[in-house]
Amino acid sequence: MRKYRKSLFGLIALFVIPAGAGMAQISPPASATGHITAEVITMLAAVETSQLNFGRFAPGPQGGELIITPESTVMTQGSVWPGSGSRNAASFYVTGDPGVAYTITLPSGPVTITHMGSARTMTVEEWTSVPEPTPGAGMLENGSQIVMVGATLKVGSLADNPVGIYTGTYTITFDFN
């Protein structure tokens, strides 16, 4: 009986001890808060720093063209006399994230400028720029670039385009590539 008791006691101990050992305190799970950061940037911004200025000129009896290149070189065709005074290509200061390539889109057709005292008009067309308006030609190497824009002013005779000031606006688009 003694042997039986020892065996029974050993068997009970075998079941009781692991049960107590299995009831060790379980710690709650650990948690931590992570943080997220994101920054939205302006890919491109553009500001006109100089207006396209055809300056003072006389149309002559047949009219013609007054051409300003992006480098501000002035040429005339027809009977247009360039006159004195200043004239220049337009310039735009384009900024954005360094290393961004972009495309310049110039007006696709003529832009009308209107005499300030009458309904008489002239057209501006044949737009050109430096850098050229080809995909990815603009590059913000250090986060900025100056874009120069020239065009051709189509001038009628003095009867078509009376003396006075002509004004208008146009849109150029700078698009991220």
Task: Describe this entry's structure for a reader.
The chain is mainly beta. Helix content is 11%, strand content 37%. It is built from 1 helix and 11 strands, in the order H-E-E-E-E-E-E-E-E-E-E-E. Strands 1, 2, 3, 4, 6, 7, 9 and 10 form an 8-stranded antiparallel beta sheet that branches. It has a 3-stranded antiparallel beta sheet with strand order 8-5-11, with no helix packed on it. A hairpin with a 5-residue loop joins strand 6 and strand 7. The longest helix has 20 residues, at 2-21. The model has no long low-confidence stretch (mean pLDDT 89).
CATH class: Mainly Beta
The overall average pLDDT, rounded, is 89
- The whole-angstrom Rg is 39 Å
Helix content class: 10-25%
Q: Mind summarizing the main beta sheet?
A: 8 strands, antiparallel
Q: Structural class of the helix and strand makeup?
A: mainly beta
Q: How many E-type strands?
A: 11
The low-pLDDT segments are none
CATH topology: Immunoglobulin-like
Give the domain tally: 1
> What gross morphology would you assign?
rod-shaped
**Count of alpha and pi helical runs:** 1
Strand coverage percent: 35-45%
At a glance:
By secondary structure, the protein is mainly beta.
